[in-house]
Amino acid sequence: NLAYWQIFGELEALDEIEKNYEISGYVMFILLIAYMTVASVLLISLLIAMFSNTFDRLHMDADCIWKFQYYSLVSYYLSRPSLPAPLVIIIHFWRLIVYFLSTYIKL
């Protein structure tokens, strides 16, 4: 009996029932157990519904988020030189030549 009420932290309610036990009998005890059980089931159901709603919203946006992250990754690797570290100087010289030629042609 006490262990059931410790689950909900309602030890004061149990004291109230014990004081009025002669008047109400088992009816109050059974009604209180039914109320706490229904309230717990409703709260768990609400929690499951909220998780489901959050999952559905994220699932709908997942494709857009994946495409954005994929684009960011590809654009990052396109801006990096394609040669390894010792040979990267060749790419830098090539970019410098292309830059000077493009500014010279525009003038």
Number of discrete helical segments: 5
**DSSP strand content:** under 5%
Main sheet makeup? none
Classify the secondary structure makeup into a structural class.
Answer: mainly alpha
Count of folded domains: 1
Number of strands: 0
> SSE order, as H and E?
HHHHH
Mean pLDDT: 83
Through-space gap between termini: 92 Å
What share of the residues lie within helices? over 70%
Radius of gyration in whole Å, from Cα?
Answer: 35 Å
Low-confidence stretches: none
Shape: rod-shaped
Task: Explain the layout of strands and helices.
Elements: H1 2-8, H2 11-19, H3 21-24, H4 26-79, H5 88-106
Would you give an account of this structure?
This protein is 87% helix and 0% strand. It is an all-alpha fold. The mean pLDDT is 83. GO terms for molecular function: ligand-gated calcium channel activity. The chain crosses the membrane at residues 26-51, 83-105.
Kindly summarize this structure in a few lines.
Helix content is 87%, strand content 0%.
Primary descriptors:
single chain; 107 residues; mainly alpha; 5 helices; rod-shaped
